[in-house]
Amino acid sequence: MLAMSGIPNWKTIKTDGAIRYIELLLLVDMSTYIYQLNIRIIVVDVVKVIGYNLTLEQIGKYRKQSLTKMAKHDALMLVSRSFDGGIAYVGGICGPNAIAITGFYPQSSMEYSSVIFHELAHLLGVPHDIKTECSCSYELLGNCLKIDGYDNDCSAQALVDNLPWHSCIQSPPEELPATVLPICGNGVLEPSEECDCGPERFCSSLVCDASACRRTISNMQLVYILSFILFSATVLLFFCVKFIANRRDRVFSNNVIKADTKNIWQVLKNYINKNLMKN
Predict the structure, then answer these.
(1) Are the CB atoms for 9 and 144 separated by under 8 Å?
(2) Strands 86-88, 39-45: pairing kind
(3) What 8-state DSSP symbol labels residue 23?
(4) What letter would DSSP give residue 108?
C-alpha cells in the first residue's frame, strides 16, 4: 500500500525514540513522509510576499527585517510558482539561514511533498554527498531508506542521525501562535482539533477518528467506560480473594480431620495392646 501510494516505507530506520517538533512558515502537509521519522510539522503561519525570482539571500534579508513581526518559527519556506525544484541552506535550521525555496506543483501533491521534504532534509544538515550506512529489510531492497533526489540509499537514516544536533526542535512549543494552521494528521493537538493521532495509516487510537481529528466517544462516555472497568475489576478481585480464603479454610479443615483420625486409631491400638498383655 505504501509503495503504491508513492509514500516510502521506512520501518527499518533506527531512531533514538525522541520526537522532534519543527515550526515552519509556509508549508504543505507532508506528515506521511516525516511521521515515520518521529518528526512533527507545525505550520505556524502562512504569509503572502510579492516578488519575482527571489533568492535565498533576499528571503534571508526579508526574514531578518521582519523577524519580530513573524510568528516564532524554526524555519521559513518560500513556495513559489515560478521556481523550478527547490533550494535550501544545508544545516540552516535553528539559525539565520533556516530558509528554503520550493516550486509549487498543484497538479501533483506527492511531487510537491517530495520536493519540500527534500529541502527540509537539507535544512536538517543532509547534503547530497552524504555518506552513511543503514540496514534494509528484504522487501525494501532497491529503495531502502532513500529520500527522493538523493543518491545515497540511506539518506533518511542520515537525516534521523542529525536530529539530536538541532536544539530548537527537541521539544514541543510551549504555546502555539494564534496564526497556526491546524493540520489534521500531523500528530500535534492544535486549535479546533479534539484529538490528533497522526496520519490514518499510523493511527492506533481507539477513541480518535484520524480522518477528522474528532473523538469517537465523548469524555463522559469515556468516564462511564473506565468506571465500569474499574468496578468490574474490583468485583472480580473481591471474589478471587474470597475463593482463595474459602479454599484455604477447606484445606485447613481437612488437615484437622486427618490429624484427629490418626489420633483415634492410635488410642484404639494402644487400648487393644494393653488388654492383650493383661490376658
Answers:
(1) no
(2) unpaired
(3) E
(4) -
Q: Which residue numbers belong to the known binding site?
A: 118, 122, 128
**100 has which bridge partners?**
77, 88
- List the CATH code of the domain at 2-181: 3.40.390.10
CA distance linking residue 18 with residue 38, whole number of Å: 7
pTM as predicted: 0.70
The residue whose grid cell reads 469517537 is 216
Taking the C-alpha atoms of residue 101 and residue 13, their distance in angstroms, rounded to an integer, is 27
Please name the residues in contact with 189: beta carbons below 8 A apart, sequence gap of 6 or more.
195, 196
pLDDT in tens, 168-199: 999 999 899 999 999 898 899 999 999 999 98
200 given a catalytic annotation: no
> Contact 98/89 with Cβ under 8 angstroms?
yes
Looking at 23, 57, 119, 194, which residue is catalytic?
119
- Terminal alpha carbon distance of the chain: 101
Chain segment 219-246, per-residue pLDDT in tens: 788 788 888 899 888 888 888 887 777 7
* Residue 206 to residue 203: CA distance in whole angstroms: 9
Annotated binding site for Zn(2+): 118, 122, 128
* Cα distances (Å, whole numbers) of residue 81 to 26, 85, 94, 104: 13, 10, 26, 5
Distance between CA atoms of 74 and 38, rounded to whole angstroms?
Answer: 17
State how far Cα 259 lies from the chain centre. 64
Other C-beta atoms within 10 Å of 204: how many?
8
CA 176 to CA 208: how far, in whole Å?
Answer: 22
Q: How many residues does the chain have?
A: 279
Label residues 74-99 b or e (16+ Cβ within 10 Å = b).
bbbbbbbeebeebebbebbbbeebbb
